[in-house]
Design brief:
single chain, mainly alpha, 5 helices, 0% strand, globular
Length: 76
C-alpha cells in the first residue's frame, strides 16, 4: 500500500473510497456519510485524508478490496 501512495496517481481516490467506507461502517457508533463528518470537523474545509487516519484492518474484506483494487497479481 505504501508503494501505491507513492506511485499510483489515482491513490487519492482509492483512499477517499476507503475513508467513505469506514465512515459509513465504523467499528463503533453510527455510520454516516463522510461529508457529514467533515462538516463537523472544521466546517468541511479540510480534505478527509488530512482529518481522518483510521487504522488499516486487512482482515476486513471490503477494506482489502478498496485498498488493493489497483494491484495486479504480479504486484503482490
Amino acid at each position: 500500500m505504501i508503494c501505491q501512495q507513492v506511485f499510483d496517481p489515482e491513490f487519492s481516490r482509492t483512499w477517499a473510497a476507503y475513508l467513505e467506507h469506514h465512515s459509513r461502517n465504523p467499528a463503533e457508533g453510527r455510520g454516516r456519510p463522510l461529508p457529514e463528518r467533515l462538516a463537523e470537523v472544521g466546517g468541511g474545509a479540510l480534505p478527509a485524508d488530512r482529518v481522518f487516519h483510521p487504522m488499516t484492518d486487512l482482515r476486513d474484506e471490503q477494506s482489502v478490496k478498496l485498498l488493493l483494487r489497483g494491484e495486479t497479481v504480479q504486484d503482490r
